[in-house]
């Protein structure tokens, strides 16, 4: 039996406990052993939950921790402490991965454990593992991703006539949005996710702060009508363009012929171009309790199969990337057109 701890019993943390419980038989098949949630840490009064991280990191039974707290602190301090104790950490915390992922990955390597963050990008889509493992030999020149489930949910509903604030309220009710939904609608969450993807495939650390970023708050119903007349839809994209050394986040017009056109509601789509494999398209639920938890559990299984070893996550020792300005919008439309 592999004992784990879950830090933060919010949407994703609660989902992890549920997936471990409901998919016991499948987990046993994948791992060759059972997973057991021995501790839950939460600052709130929850029966059975602990409040002191030291109880967890000093328990030699604990092999893997799921950090599903979100935000920088205390997630950073707790992750640091766990890795120093040789305990692997699996997280959905894109803010922390963007800000401290390089440092935490180096600490994991030093202590023969792992820092994995599949759930930080694309919710349930196993895109990081696929890029890291199946495409590790590819030269990736381009990524365009619908990376925020909340924004895509809002844009899909606005296209169908619902107003912005109503659609945002629905997304919050479904557990898709961030605690502060400005991170979703201003594009910051997408910026963190495309920064993680670009860093993973380029060997250079792109950071959210460097990225030119426009969200979805200025999009109007008229823009949807105009886009539709021209056979396009409006999507918030994170784009990595290796040739122009640029990473950006902005609303784009996506033509019907592009596979991202049909990615609607909470779904995410990530289009990747490799120099040998050519175009790949990843698609799945980009937010929500169980899909995101499923991605966390996939990392837990990988860590549990590699206890005492470091899994190379492509993040340790990345040098800072320099980034060029975003190319001009020469499309003749209000928004850039995805080519
Ligand atoms: N608020 C995020 C989203 C959650 O809507 O995509 C998943 O990272």
Task: Please explain how this structure is put together.
By secondary structure, this protein is α/β, with parallel strands linked by helices. The protein has twelve helices and twelve strands. Strands 6, 7, 8, 9, 10, 11 and 12 form a seven-stranded mixed β-sheet that branches. A five-stranded parallel β-sheet has the order 2-1-3-4-5, with helices on both faces. Helix 4 links the parallel strand 3 and strand 4. Helix 4 runs parallel beside helix 5. The radius of gyration is 20 Å and the shape is globular. The termini are far apart. The model has no long low-confidence stretch (mean pLDDT 97). L-homoserine binds next to helix 7.
């Amino acid at each position: 039996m592999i004992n784990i701890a879950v830090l933060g019993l919010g949407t994703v943390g609660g989902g992890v406990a549920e997936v471990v419980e409901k998919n016991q038989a499948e987990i046993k098949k994948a791992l060759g052993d059972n997973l057991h949630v021995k501790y839950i840490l939460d600052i709130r009064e929850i029966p059975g939950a602990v409040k002191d991280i030291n109880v967890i990191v000093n328990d030699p039974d604990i092999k893997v921790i799921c950090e599903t707290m979100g935000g920088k602190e205390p997630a950073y301090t707790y992750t640091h402490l766990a890795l120093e104790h040789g305990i692997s950490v699996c997280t959905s915390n894109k803010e922390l991965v963007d800000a401290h992922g390089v440092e935490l990955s180096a600490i994991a390597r030093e202590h023969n454990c792992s820092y994995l963050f599949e759930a930080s990008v694309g919710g349930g889509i196993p895109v990081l593992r696929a890029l890291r493992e199946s495409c590790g030999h590819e030269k990736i020149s381009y990524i365009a991703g619908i990376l925020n489930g909340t924004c895509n949910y809002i844009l899909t509903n606005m296209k169908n006539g619902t107003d912005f604030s109503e659609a945002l309220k629905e997304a919050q009710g479904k557990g898709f949005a961030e605690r502060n939904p400005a991170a979703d609608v201003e594009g910051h969450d997408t910026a963190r996710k495309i920064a993680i993807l670009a860093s993973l495939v380029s060997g250079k650390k792109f950071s959210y702060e460097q990225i030119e970023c426009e969200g979805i708050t200025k999009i109007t119903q008229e823009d949807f009508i105009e886009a539709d007349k021209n056979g396009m839809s409006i999507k918030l994209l994170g784009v990595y363009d290796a040739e122009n050394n640029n990473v950006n986040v902005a609303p784009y017009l996506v033509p019907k012929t592009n596979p991202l056109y049909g990615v609607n509601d909470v779904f995410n789509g990530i289009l990747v171009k490799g120099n040998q494999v050519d175009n790949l398209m990843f698609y799945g639920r980009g937010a929500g309790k169980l899909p995101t938890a499923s991605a966390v559990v996939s990392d837990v299984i990988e860590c549990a199969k590699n206890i005492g070893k470091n899994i190379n996550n492509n993040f340790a020792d990345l040098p800072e990337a320099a980034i060029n300005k975003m190319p001009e919008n020469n499309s003749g439309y209000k928004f850039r057109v995805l080519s």
